[in-house]
Amino acid sequence: MNFISEDSIEGVTISQRHAPPSHYIFKIQSFSSLMKNQIERYDSGDFESGGYKWKLSLFPDGNKKKSVKDHISLYLVIADTSSLSFGWEVNVSFKLFLLDQIRDQYLTIEESGGRYRRFHGMKTELGFSHLIPHTTFNNPSNGYLVDDTCVFGAEVFVSKSTDIGGECLSMLKEATTFTYTWNIEKFSELREAYNASEPFIVGDYKWYLKLYPKGNANEKNHVSFYLVLTDSGTLAPGLKVYVKNRLRVKNQASTSTSTIEKEANFCFTKSSPGWGWAKIISLDTLNDQMKGFLIKDTCIVEAEVTVLGLVSTLS
């Protein structure tokens, strides 16, 4: 196999072991759906080790910013650095794992000699851009991808830690997409701080659109626009709904100005039920009749929602 570390300084050590990772397990079901839906990058949930928070960053089709082809890229990322003091540095020895499900043993990848690497403000992720070739990963006899399911893992040694966390990303083989159009009439007469659309169903979940016609508390010169999971309170603890979200402000006239569209992937949870943009369109642009976004005092907005999968906590 061809494994190359991110910086390719001293190479890597590859070994096999039966013991699972001590700090984090990242299981993915319907892995092929990541490729099918062109998910360039997926960041796992945070986990703790050595008094710091970490996460795994997976590039199913390789890190294109590093010109990686035909490989999976996997990195360890230090998370929540805002709480760290100015000039912070964290020295870490880490291992990344890939489970051979046939032989029930983990492929273990680490820097040669288990040497420590330095995380700092300008280097918040380290790992392996060429973790494993697609041909090796997809070969059924190797056991890394079984029934379209794979398992990665991580150990991070800053100081002794016995806490083990993990999550499972279950991608839907047939992702559900729905486009909801909301015609907002008498826009200039809206007096409430925000307005909510009628609810709509996508992927067995109920959603609605939330629009601040004069911006939210921090953005008074723009329209703020969000997608909200209506029944987030019914989600089980640790469950996340992984969604591709496109929000649009429609252009209603034949002008050179095109429809405004913004897109993001986001995990909706009980504590974070909404996602969108505080500045999707400026009020000056909206109210300019030549631009075509507000015709006969009607504004048309859309949400194209694709439920990609579910993320659950591994117990």
TrEMBL record:
Q: What is this protein called?
A: MATH domain-containing protein
* A Pfam short name: MATH_2
> MATH domain spans which residues?
21-156, 177-305
What species is given as this protein's source?
Stephania japonica
What PANTHER family does the entry give?
Answer: ANKYRIN REPEAT-CONTAINING PROTEIN-RELATED (PTHR46162:SF2), TRAF-LIKE FAMILY PROTEIN (PTHR46162)
- Entry superkingdom: Eukaryota
Q: Gene3D superfamilies in the record, alphabetically? A: Apoptosis, Tumor Necrosis Factor Receptor Associated Protein 2, Chain A (2.60.210.10)
**SMART domains recorded for this chain?**
MATH (SM00061)
